[in-house]
């Protein structure tokens, strides 16, 4: 249901803005998502920050949500667009349940739906300003894919958005292997999230890890990572130049 | 110094909403500025939507007023159809609907606060862009930058109404 305040921009032949509405820039944004396939399914990690430009304004945003029985969606980018996507998916899942035929939407289907939505919005020059990560398990098969705000879509064994592309992916390329145990998977994700915490200005030390297996989705309680700051140079900072500050 | 009297009326505001054990307390300053000139020094930035839901307005004065007016109108109809008072969540969602779908044109940040029998006192922050964030307390407006640190250290759960009021006035 939408309500657009009626505005009369006039003749759309002469006035270029009359019939186009475009998202120009994001306001409240979430930073990276990192996700990997493991032995029993998919693990996904995100922090709980919502930035407003360079201010870290919100510290309790959940950027990963369960979709139906088989999928988990994580988003980075504009939070209001993510909330809108969740509404679209609610409708999708509701209609799926109404068939009452024993079948339910799997991660492949949800990923495809999201790809279509993102690409079509991009074509209208009014993108949903998000990069989405879609993971899930159905009938024993794990699935992990990604869709960007311009509709680029693919699947892989490990994905990351935003800064994670630059910082987490190299780690995952080196250290991911098939059939990771849950503990190893979490350790690997935590390693990536720690690097992001050190090097991504918009990251905060309050993260959640979500797990999806054949049994369903669990999102962990928020927790924080231990970080290392015991650099020797901090112990006696003026050692090389007595009297300086 | 030049007074740009044609500048849009923006509020230059500080708005605060706080939950306590039993409901919510809302606070706001009363200055509306047009550039450097104070157009109204007695503005009421806390606006009633229903008997049990109010909204604090910041950003463009016109935008926030017109959004409040539409939502008050919708909530009035909704209350009649529902047969009981509207919930705070529904009020916040209606504001969100307008804020999100018109994000290209609107420039207003709002804090919706109220009490209903299902969830008790609730505060919802709706910044630019139309994100909805349910929070135990919310701050907004350009003046709120100075308050992030204050509330990070001063806020605690389950304050009494008097404690909440004192904190807000101090802020």
State the main characteristics.
heterodimer; A: Glutamine Phosphoribosylpyrophosphate, subunit 1, domain 1; 8-stranded antiparallel beta sheet; B: alpha+beta; 4 helices; protease (chain B); Proteasome_bsu_CS (chain B)
* SS element count, helices of chain A: 4
Mean pLDDT of chain A: 91
Number of DSSP-assigned strands of chain B = 10
| Integer-rounded radius of gyration of chain A | 21 Å
Number of helices of chain B: 4
- Strand fraction of chain B equals 25-35%
Oligomer: heterodimer
| Shape label of chain B | globular
What average pLDDT do the residues of chain B reach? 92
Please compute the radius of gyration of chain B using only Cα atoms. 16 Å
Q: Give the termini distance of chain A in whole angstroms.
A: 61 Å
Question: What general outline of chain A do the C-alpha atoms trace?
Answer: globular
Please tally the β strands of chain A and state the result: 13
Q: Helix proportion of residues of chain A, in percent?
A: 25-40%
From the coordinates shown, what is the CATH architecture of chain A?
Answer: 4-Layer Sandwich
InterPro entries (chain B): Ntn_hydrolases_N (IPR029055), Pept_T1A_subB (IPR000243), Proteasome_bsu_CS (IPR016050), Proteasome_sua/b (IPR001353), Proteasome_suB-type (IPR023333)
Catalytic activity (chain B): Cleavage of peptide bonds with very broad specificity
Keywords (chain B): Cytoplasm, Hydrolase, Protease, Proteasome, Threonine protease
Organism (chain B): Brassica cretica
Quick structural overview:
The complex is a heterodimer of chains A (245) and B (171). With 245 residues, chain A is of the alpha+beta class. Helices cover 28% and strands 28% of the residues of chain A.
């Amino acid at each position: 249901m939408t309500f657009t305040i009626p505005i009369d921009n006039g003749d759309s032949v002469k006035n270029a803005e009359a019939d186009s509405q475009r998202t120009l820039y994001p306001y409240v944004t979430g930073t990276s998502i990192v996700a990997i396939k493991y032995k029993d399914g998919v693990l996904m990690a995100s922090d709980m920050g919502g930035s407003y430009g360079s201010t870290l304004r919100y510290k309790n945003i959940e950027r990963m949500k369960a979709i139906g029985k088989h999928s988990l969606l994580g988003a980075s980018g504009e939070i209001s667009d993510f909330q809108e996507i969740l509404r679209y998916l609610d409708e999708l899942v509701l209609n799926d349940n109404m068939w009452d035929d024993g079948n339910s939407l799997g991660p492949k289907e949800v990923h495809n739906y999201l790809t279509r939505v993102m690409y079509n919005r991009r074509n209208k020059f009014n993108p949903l300003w998000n990069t989405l990560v879609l993971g899930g398990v159905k009938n024993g098969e794990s699935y992990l894919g990604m869709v960007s705000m311009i509709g680029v879509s693919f699947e892989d064994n490990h994905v990351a958005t935003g800064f994670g592309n630059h910082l987490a992916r190299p780690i995952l390329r080196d250290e991911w292997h098939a059939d990771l145990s849950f503990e190893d998977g979490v350790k690997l994700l935590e390693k990536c999230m720690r690097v992001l915490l050190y090097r991504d200005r918009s990251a905060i030390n309050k993260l959640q890890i979500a797990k999806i297996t054949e049994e369903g989705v669990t999102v962990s309680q928020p927790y924080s990572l231990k970080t290392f700051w015991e650099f020797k140079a901090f112990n006696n900072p003026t050692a090389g130049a007595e009297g300086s500050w | 110094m030049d007074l740009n009297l044609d500048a849009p009326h923006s509020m230059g505001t500080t708005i605060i909403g706080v939950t306590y054990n039993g409901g919510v307390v809302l606070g706001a300053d009363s200055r509306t500025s047009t550039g450097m000139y104070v157009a109204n020094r007695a503005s009421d930035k806390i606006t009633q939507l229903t008997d049990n839901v109010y909204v604090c307005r910041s950003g463009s004065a016109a935008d926030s007023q017109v959004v409040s007016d539409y939502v008050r109108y919708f909530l009035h109809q909704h209350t009649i159809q529902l047969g009981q008072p509207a919930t705070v969540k529904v009020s916040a969602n209606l504001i969100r609907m307008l804020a999100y779908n018109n994000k290209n044109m609107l420039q207003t940040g709002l804090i919706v606060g109220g009490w209903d029998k299902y969830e008790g006192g609730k505060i919802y922050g709706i910044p630019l862009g139309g994100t909805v964030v349910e929070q135990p307390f919310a701050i907004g407006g350009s003046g709120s930058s100075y308050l992030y640190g204050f509330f990070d250290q001063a806020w605690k759960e389950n304050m009494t109404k008097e404690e909440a009021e004192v904190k807000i006035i101090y802020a």
